[in-house]
Amino acid sequence: MSSYSLVGSGTLFGLFLCISGVESMRTLKNVAAKHGGSVTIPCLYEKQYKANPKFWCKGYFWSSCSIVAYTSTNGITSLSDHPAQNIFTVELNPVSDSGTYWCAAEIGSKWMPDDRDHLYLTVSQDPDLSVMNSRVKGKKGGSVTVQCFYSAAYRDKQKQWCRFKDEWCNTVRKTSPSQNSAVQITDNGRSFSVQMSRLEESDAGWYWCSAGDLQVPVHISVGDEAPGLPDNQREDKVSHLNDTILALCIISGLLLVLMVVGLVIWKLKQKQTGQLVTNKGYNHSLINTDVDYGALVFRQPQSNPNQSRKAREDAVTYSTVVDGQCKASSASEPEVTYSTLKFSHNPTVSPVPPNDKVTYSSVKRH
What we know:
alpha+beta, Immunoglobulin-like
């Protein structure tokens, strides 16, 4: 059974990877927002879900969250899909409630869960992190500046400027930034400013500034491109990884089915073998029942010399007995027949002369 254990361990490991790796949706983790203000949250999805419906869900648990809005919904919560960039945005205006929210793409299959990722929205009258402008536009070859404000409670927290599409981050440091860098970050103790110069079209997209565990999304546009990601495809390595995980899920499922079927067959064979051994033991006991055989001694009866031959033969009675319990186990073996002799006690029979021969007979089992 060691092979079953190895296969089972590998299958469970594969299923664990499946469960932990099926979600490819990506968004922020903890977004700070001002109560009564507005915020736009980007949700990045896999390219195979371009045509799938997208939705925004509220609730701590995914299984019980309430759908707030679908794609192309307008109102307090608006969803806009940008299939060319594999991204959809959720605009909340005005912002009201803190809580856990979900970006999701509907898969529509009972075997595959909806593609999703969650974030926590921290809403307050005076947020610990905010930005001057959440949408900034620049020209190719030009520059843009984003200013991120933080509270005194986050003064000593790590501060970063990160790009959403590849999660590349530039950390704010105490030392003076290099003048040759295209990204310059300065911190004055109350806010930090991010200057992006020599802009290229590839610089367009979603970013965030962070202080500690808080994040605020910012969109940078270069030229006239639509909001979203400038490139039409994500990194190929992410797609390859998800394809590998999907293949592993399928293989693990097949191995689990084969293992269960093999175990059931093995159990049935063990049960049949036990029954066969039991039946054989029972038949053997019947066939090999101890039987005591006795030797029969045949003596010619005392006869009268003057008695006729027929009268002497009538003095002996023969009987035949067949034991039904001692039949052979197969049709090929002959039945065992036992013969007994019963001697008639005839008072008229005369003693046997001394010189008469004595005949002995024994029964031999075939």
